[in-house]
Each structure stands twice: as structure tokens, then as C-alpha cells.
Design a protein that fits this description.
This protein has 496 residues and is mostly helical. It contains 25 helices and 2 strands.
Length: 496
């Protein structure tokens, strides 16, 4: 990018007669020579004052401006370097080195049109000049990747934009392309990388509005809204027509207001209204992952209040997609899974939650979910009998009497083989259910989540026929016989 030592103008200026035309010109040449010596030893900052003095003594010399431009380039001060290079060619329109420096500086500053114009001028002035070839190649690479990056930006393919900007930055250290990369890193949630780029630029140029804008973006997307507001306001003071800053500032204010409105009506118990406000807020800025994760969680809370548990699960999942470490969303989803009797998913969520926060409460919730899962894998004896879990002994007896008589195999003697097997299975399950739930100790063990293997062992010891005979032998159990009669299958019975 920068000039080599040989590209400086090192010759001492003499007139035709070999006589120094004036003391000023002689002193200017001495100053220039001092600057050249410092330049050779890479002391660029010290060389600049000597070139400046030479310019003051002879302001019409393009070489002095050219040499100072070279120093500025070595110090990466491309704006100052470009200004001097332009002055040099203004003084001498055939000064090829000046145009080469304009091309280099323009590339470094991202002004591709100016670089192209300078390259064209060099070709016209000196068609055989090969020193401009690196700039020609760089310009081609930059143009190609800038075009690809712009297309990707329009499609919101920010990873592709970052890739394109990195290819450009391999060619030139251009602030404009660095900031475009930083902006896309912010969109991708890579805030630290974006802020580092912006901070490096602001360290050199405190008034760079685009760098301040990127810092504001990072703060906004990390839900540091008030500090983000101050950054966007600062951008607009520096550049009142900064369209991106104006747009994001409006979105930030609208998002903050809509979220707060939703919170207020939620506290007032107006859940349907809160749901609508959170939904509207989610449409404002899809890039704000942090705030949107909270909005999804808030809407999930509303859905759970309204009994819309599947929607609540979906919203919690959306929140976790945006923020995988969102513990409150994970716990809310686990609770919804419990309420939906999806105990396997609940256990999975509570296990994740316990890894994130090893609190006593989270451990208790996981144990409860595991117990519920274990219970869910057993036969539901209450469901088999068709009674509530709080059913009394009399209710259990009545339910058994009804179900046992309905499913007794003798009642289905004339049924198909498949139907017989199905009714035998149900009769057996009804006997197991009554055998467990009619015994206070067994029922207590069942209700308390006794190990599945133990409960199956207890159930396997129960002979449904013995239960049936014992039940109807009890006082009030009833008398029955299976003979021809008015009931289907030749079933008749008589209660005593």
C-alpha cells in the first residue's frame, strides 16, 4: 500500500546553470534531505515536520507534497496522505507518483471511483508503468467482493457479508469495510468482535459516526437500551442525516414502549390485551434477539395464564432459540410440559435447568418430574376403573362392580376370538386395579410412586377371577349367574 524508500523524490533540485536560485530553495532542499534520511530509517513521524518546512519555504514543489504524502501513508493517515497527493498533481499534472499515491490512498479509504480514475491517468501518462499493477489487481478484487457483499447484505446473509469484507480487508485496511463487517457481526450477535472493531476506529477517529452507530447497535441488541439511545443521539449530532441511526433509534423507542405497555396490562390482569401487545412488539425488530427472547417468554407466560399450554411451549422454545441460556424460559417450558403430562420433555428441561442452576428448588422440580414420569409409565388404575384419584372406597367398589360385569369373559362367550382376548385383557386390568386400590397400603404405595417393577410384581400376584369371586361373595357384593336371559350374551345377574 505505502511507498518504498525508492519512490521518494531524492534528487537535489538545481537550475540549469548549477546555481541555487535562492536561499529559500536551498534551505527547502536541505529540509527535504533531512526528511528523506529520517524516512529511510522509518522515522516517519519525525520526517513530516521537515517536509512541512520545505513546503512552507517552497509551496509550489510537488515533490515535497509527495514525500510528505508518503510519510502519512506509512503512518496509515490516508486522508492527510490523499490531500498531499492531490496537491502534488495539482501543481504538476504529469506527476505520475502523485497519481499512484492517490490510487493507493483512495483504495485504503474505500473510494473505488477515485482509485480507478487515478489508475486511468497513470496509464495515460505512462503506459508502460508497472508500479500501478498491484493497485489494479486490488481494485478488481475489492470490486468483486464489494458487489457480492452488497447482494448478500440485501438478502440479510450477514455471514456472507463478513466473508466478503474479510477478503477486501486482505487487500486494503479500509475503515469503511471494517465498519460494514462490524455492523454485520452485530446482526449476527457477535457483539464483542463488533465492538472491538468500532473501538479501534474510534481510538483513531473519535468523531466517526458509523463506529458510534455500531457501538450503539451492540448495546441495543444486548438490551442496554438507555446507553444505546445516547449513542444513537450522538450519531445524529455528528451526522444528522445518518439514515441507519435514525431507523434503529425509532425501532428501539417503539420496541421499548410496546414492551412496557404489554407489561402494564399484564400486571393489570388483562391477558388477552397483553398477548396482542407482545405480539406487536415481536414484529418491530427481528434482529434484537435479547429483547425478543424476553418478549417470547412474556407471551408464553400470558398463554399459560390463559390455559393455552401448547402455545406457551412454542413461545418458550422460540425464546430459547434466541437465548439458549434463558433459564426462566426453560423452567416455564418444563412447567407447561408437566401440565400437559409430557413428563419426558419436562424431565429433559429440568435436567438442563439443574445444570445451569444447581439450586434446591430446581433439584426438587426435577425429582417431581421424574416421579411423574415413572408414574406415567405404569398402568393408570384410576383410569381403568373410571374414577378420580381422590375416589372413596365405596366409589372404587361401585366402579369395579360395573366394569367387572361389563368385561367378564363369560359375558362375551359368543364374541369373536379377537374380541374375547380384548375383554379378557380388560377384565384382568380391572381386577388388578381393584386389587391395588381397594387395599389401603397398596394404594398408598401406588400413589406415592412405588417403583414400577415392585407395582408390577404386586399386580401379577392378583388373580382377577379370585378378585371377582371374592368381591361378589362380600356382603352387598351381589349374586350373579351367567344363564340365558334378557341381557346380551346370555348374561343375567341379581344383586342381594
Amino acid at each position: 500500500m505505502a511507498d518504498t524508500v525508492n519512490e521518494l523524490d531524492m534528487d537535489v533540485t538545481e537550475n540549469v546553470d548549477g546555481i541555487i536560485t535562492s536561499n529559500g530553495e536551498e534551505l527547502a532542499e536541505l529540509k527535504k534531505e533531512s526528511g528523506n534520511q529520517l524516512y529511510k530509517t522509518k522515522k516517519y513521524q519525525q520526517a513530516i515536520p521537515f517536509y512541512t518546512e520545505a513546503i512552507e519555504l517552497c509551496p509550489d514543489s510537488p515533490a515535497y507534497y509527495g514525500n510528505r504524502s508518503a510519510c502519512y501513508m506509512m503512518l496509515h493517515q490516508y486522508k492527510d496522505a490523499l490531500e498531499d497527493a492531490r496537491k502534488s498533481v495539482a501543481l504538476d499534472t504529469s506527476f505520475v507518483k502523485g497519481y499512484i499515491r492517490i490510487a493507493k490512498c483512495s483504495l485504503a479509504l474505500g473510494d473505488l471511483t477515485a482509485a480507478d480514475n487515478a489508475i486511468t491517468t497513470v496509464k495515460e501518462l505512462n503506459p508502460g508503468n508497472t508500479s500501478i499493477l498491484p493497485e489494479i489487481q486490488k481494485l478488481e478484487v475489492i470490486r468483486r467482493f464489494e458487489e457480492e457483499g452488497n447482494k448478500a447484505y440485501q438478502k440479510q446473509d450477514y455471514r456472507k457479508v463478513v466473508f466478503c469484507m474479510d477478503r477486501i480487508l486482505e487487500q486494503v485496511p479500509c475503515t469503511r469495510f471494517k465498519l460494514k463487517k462490524a455492523e454485520c457481526l452485530a446482526f449476527l450477535g457477535r457483539y464483542q468482535e463488533a465492538q472491538e472493531i468500532a473501538n479501534d476506529i474510534l481510538h483513531v477517529d473519535k468523531q466517526n459516526a458509523d463506529a458510534v452507530y455500531v457501538r450503539g447497535m451492540c448495546l441495543y441488541y444486548q438490551d442496554n437500551v438507555e446507553r444505546a439511545f445516547s449513542h444513537f443521539q450522538h450519531v445524529l449530532r455528528l451526522a444528522p442525516d445518518h439514515q441507519k441511526a435514525m431507523d434503529i433509534y425509532k425501532r428501539a423507542k417503539a420496541l421499548k414502549q410496546k414492551k412496557e405497555e404489554g407489561n402494564e396490562v399484564f400486571k393489570a390482569g388483562r391477558f388477552n390485551e397483553a398477548y396482542n401487545l407482545y405480539t406487536d412488539a415481536l414484529k418491530i425488530d427481528p434482529h434484537n434477539k435479547s429483547t425478543n427472547a424476553k418478549l417470547y417468554f412474556n407471551r408464553a407466560t400470558v398463554c399459560s395464564k390463559l390455559g393455552r399450554l401448547n402455545e406457551a411451549v412454542a413461545d418458550c422454545s422460540s425464546a430459547l432459540e434466541l437465548d439458549e441460556n434463558y433459564l426462566k424460559a426453560l423452567l416455564r417450558r418444563a412447567k407447561c410440559y408437566m401440565d400437559l403430562n409430557d413428563f419426558e420433555e419436562a424431565v429433559r428441561d429440568y435436567e438442563k435447568a439443574l445444570k445451569m442452576d444447581k439450586s434446591r428448588e430446581n433439584k426438587r422440580l426435577l425429582q417431581e418430574a421424574k416421579l411423574a414420569l415413572k408414574k406415567s409409565k405404569r398402568k393408570d388404575y384410576y383410569k381403568i376403573l373410571g374414577v378420580d384419584k381422590n375416589a372413596s372406597t365405596d366409589e372404587i367398589k361401585k366402579a369395579y362392580r360395573k366394569r367387572a360385569l361389563v368385561h367378564h369373559p363369560d359375558r362375551h362367550a359368543n364374541a369373536s376370538d379377537g374380541e374375547k382376548k380384548e375383554q379378557e385383557k380388560k377384565f384382568k386390568e380391572v381386577g388388578e386395579a381393584y386389587g391395588i386400590l381397594s387395599d389401603p397400603k397398596k394404594r398408598a404405595r401406588y400413589d406415592n410412586g412405588q417403583d414400577l417393577e415392585d407395582m408390577e410384581g404386586m399386580a401379577s400376584d392378583i388373580d382377577p377371577n379370585n378378585v371377582f369371586q371374592a368381591f361378589f361373595a362380600e356382603p352387598g357384593g351381589g349374586q350373579f349367574n351367567f344363564t340365558s336371559g334378557s341381557f346380551p350374551g346370555g348374561f343375567t345377574f341379581q344383586f342381594g
